[in-house]
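Need residues for this backbone.
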């Protein structure tokens, strides 16, 4: 294993002082631009707390395993399918 030499802090400070006003303007301009949701960007997920009893959780886990899914994706899929059925009526 190689041990790296600690960087010279004086060199780091002098390099930081060499930033031009154009670079500062570029950095500041980047902060002002709003984030756009372009193609391929996903909406942010929101945490949801569920409190199933142990029997419900066992049934959910068994069904998820049978479908080859983990618990959270299985619950989300089931909830969306039920919501779609209810909203179609």
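Answer:
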């Amino acid at each position: 294993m190689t041990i790296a030499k600690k960087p010279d802090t004086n060199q780091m400070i002098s390099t930081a002082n060499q930033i031009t006003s154009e670079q500062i303007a570029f950095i500041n301009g980047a902060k002002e631009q709003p984030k756009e949701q372009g193609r391929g960007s996903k909406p942010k997920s929101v945490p949801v707390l569920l409190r199933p009893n142990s029997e419900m959780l066992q049934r959910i886990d068994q069904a998820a395993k049978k479908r080859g899914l983990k618990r959270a994706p299985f619950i989300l899929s089931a909830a969306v399918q039920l919501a779609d059925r209810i909203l179609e009526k």
